[in-house]
# Entry
Amino acid sequence: MELLIEERTVDLSEMTSILDDRFEDHKRILDFSDVIILPALVRSEGDLLNPLTPDMRVILSENNLKVNVAVKEPHKYLGLYDADVILPCLLIVLPHIVPIIHGIIANYIFEHVRHDATVTYEETIIDGEKVSRKKITGPGKEVADMLRSMR
# Structure
């Protein structure tokens, strides 16, 4: 499999509506968060979270980042039963920390994922009124190398 990179612009209201449904005051959360882990699937009856959400929260927090998880209760974890690794989608609130996040995620992939496993990494970056989403899919080593080169 070759490396696939998808990029698109997202409407800021799409992000704020997801946050409004999950936090009492999304503006306060944005002001006091570096990264927000988004649900894998948004549902009215409760969100589905990526099974790696707890690990990502710990790893990012251990690197002195303020991390919150956007989740509507009652939540469940999405079951992944194959060799692919799908990382949680990160909402990055401070654009200047993107290189730090890329380094942390690249190291995680390098240390915890088979290099030939298919890895999907997705991020959404808020930069003022501009919101962009990037999704990278490919062999673990190539995804990690791409993230390192983007630092």
